[in-house]
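Entry:
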Amino acid sequence: MNVFTKVQRLGPAALLLAASVFVSRFMGLIRDKVISYYFGAGLETDLYNAAFIIPDFINYLLAGGYFSITLIPLLAHYFHRDETDGWAFFSAACAWISLTAFLVTGLAWILAPDLARLSAPGFSDPATQARLTHFLRIILPAQACFLPGACFTALLLHRRQFRVPALTPLVYNGGIILTGLFFVYLLPDRGMEGFCWGVLIGATLGSLVLPWLAVRAGGLRLIPRLLHPGMKSFLLLALPLMLGQSIVALDEQLLRFFGSLGQEGSISHLSYARRIMMVPVGVVAQAAGMASFPFLASLAAAGKREKFNCTVNRTLLNSLSLILPISIWMAALSLPIIRLIFQQGVFSAQAAGETAALLAIMLAAAPFWAVQQVLGRGFYAHQNTLTPVLAGSIATLAGLPLYWLLTGRLGATGVALAGVAGMGLYTLCLIRLWVKHFGSEALAGILRRFLIVLALSLACAMIAASASASILHFLPGRPLIGAFAALCAGSALFAGHLVIFCRLFAPGLWKEALAALRNLRERHI
């Protein structure tokens, strides 16, 4: 069997996707490191980040990030019933998605100057708007690769073949980095334009060509057709996701939009901080949600409610047990982390301090991400896309006044605080709706685990932060060496005390962690 078409179980799949997300985030950090080194946190980087507002919104509007969620349950239904009919449904869905993507992207390309003014109202200078429009027109065609490619990725996930979906973001980020560096060294007068072209190249190779090749290797039958009875179900599932933009989908766009209203560099500081925050979110929360979804969809389709609740509960407990200490550790050591990653070249010590403060705030939202990623997919597994999207849309609308208020008073800090509040509100609404629809069995023990891990992690964080601050204080003239020493010492103290506190005050949790490590080791022997 081809290594890229091998079927995997939930545990190995989650580990593979977590490793993929980690490597992808690391590559993203390399990309941001290159950008910050050569361009700092100024207008050019603000424009580069703002150029993604419209393309990302198109992706969310067409439910591009959720095609796997909408397609997988329907693919499971039609392929299980009749393989030929399954290919007919897949072909119709893929055709409509591709046509829509090309039409919407083309229209946005034509209207790029107006869309640039709408998406970043803080950039009012004509030359700045022209530069933003240029970046936007380079990045926009990538959507014509993302959206059709998402169909092939959904088919791979339906087959429980996770290797190529795990490689996709690596190829995408690799394309951005390599193309950006090519422009930096050979065409330095073009500024950030090379990274924009890298987005298009990475999307073409990683998000479209690679999944298509993997699907073809495992068997692909495209039937020329636009009509299929299943398209009605697909539209009913996708329509709420297309029309109801939740705080999850719009989080980064709100950050960029309101960041443009702040001082120069605000979008860049917020974007750098969010990139770091999304490392634990991606490695733990998104990987867990993505890996568990095909299994949840199968259990829901089979009517196995007890196993479904057990899978949701186990995924939530494991996700929170990991993401809470990781996010609190990162918040406690945010300054040495940002200094070590970004403080070189044009990126100054002041920029590092401002970004670190924003990172510490944003990390408070990480546990909310862990919960909503799993519960949201639990709803989707039951082919209910309306409930979570409606909850997210209400939370987003309720949070907009808070964004305006806090941004006006606190600038970039207000944007970060509003983002955390919005994600918290959305998660609480989602929990309440989950209990209403499915009961509380899947949530058993979640609050207790959250409080225990939170208390242990906060105690460790105070020790780590104190040691880190002392080291940074004694090495003021050696920012990189001081940051490295502070990060190492703080991390060692955090991890060591977490083990000690866990064994003393939460022996059950400690035994559970050891059992999980033994199981993981036995699977790889």
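The two ends are 21 Å apart (CA to CA).
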